[in-house]
Amino acid sequence: MTSPEPLSDEELGELDELAQAATPGPWFVRGLDDEHAMNLVAVSTTPDTGLGERWPDFDHREIVAATLVQQPRYVDTADERWDENAQFIATAREAVPRLVAEIRHLRRQLEAGSDQNGSRETT
After folding, report:
1. Where do runs of H (alpha helix) occur along the chain?
2. Per-residue pLDDT tens for 71-95?
């Protein structure tokens, strides 16, 4: 397996801009249920209550994304990883800005080490 190319500073900036423009976090995975959504797996700005609320007992403005809507079947994946995909999306909301910040921090440390020693240090 080959390693992916390192992110350029421009790509880091683009990721940062995307994260800043998105609905503020944290995001949570929610399970909702009604005759239209049938076990909807969603990403929401509010935590799951465990009650599988039916519309209109939940605020649709809290839903950021859905990974499963079964009736009609228009949000679905062939591999049936609805819960895993929702968890990834919800986790990415806070992880991406943290990863961008960490990469920038580490690059500044490398540059500072390079400036002090005349060459880039490796660990």
Report:
1. 9-21, 82-117
2. 777 788 899 999 999 999 999 999 9
